[in-house]
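Table S2 (text version). Query chain:
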Amino acid sequence: MARTEKQKMTIKVHEKLLLTGAAGGLGKALRERLKANCTVLRLSDVQAFGEAAAGEEVVLADLADAAAVNQMVAGVNAIVHLGGMSVEGPFGPILQANIIGAYNLYEAARKHGVKRVVFASSNHVTGFYRQGETITADHPARPDGLYGLSKAFGEDLSRFYFDRYGIETACVRIGSSFAAPKDRRMLATWLSFDDLHRLITACLTTPVLGHSIIFGMSDNAVTWWDNSRARHVGYRPQDSSDIFREAVYARTPPPDLTDPVAQYQGGGFVVAGPFAE
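Corresponding structure-token output:
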């Protein structure tokens, strides 16, 4: 009997997989999906989010706590790192979770011999490119805020750990991953939950990952990102924002082209802040 598309995309090449940020929106969306990728799924977050189900382990850890992160990583074969601050905000919390936390994670991976990481980067690493441009992974970073800056640091950090220690990383610049696009900008940046899982699976199973920067997007007709540099991972999105286009246009006004939010790929992040500590 022919295998289904879901079965084809979920080859188990890792016995124990770690998912950080399991209590967040994307962590919740991936919790059941990623169980198909491993025998045991270790889930972690800084806050309690319930008991472990069959085939799961739960480890609570603050990413800024090196000892806790070291314990969190011990015994896993690969890491899907979604943990940390996911929005623009004051530098202090971003520093602790996204910068110190990323360093702690890669140090723990080095110590425990983990050789593959899927790092949740962000489109906000390049948020100050204009919406009329199409960029590739070769374009220099242009962060649109402190959050984007922290993700640019994470990409550089992961490159160092690949060059020095051979830890392969996919830096997935996630666009807008929700059940459906919320506005006209998201028609270009949308990434369905199923396509996110397909992309992570491709990164976990491709024979040679190296250090790769990949734009996290579905097969949208309008896009600002050329993903051709990522063909070696075998990601083929199956969903598209196009089916939502008519409804999004009906409920949203035309963009004000003098507004930076409509001018730049980062949207509202380019005008967020400054924030009081």
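Notes on Table S2: Residues 40 and 55 are 5 Å apart (CA to CA). Confidence is low (pLDDT under 50) at residues 1-8.
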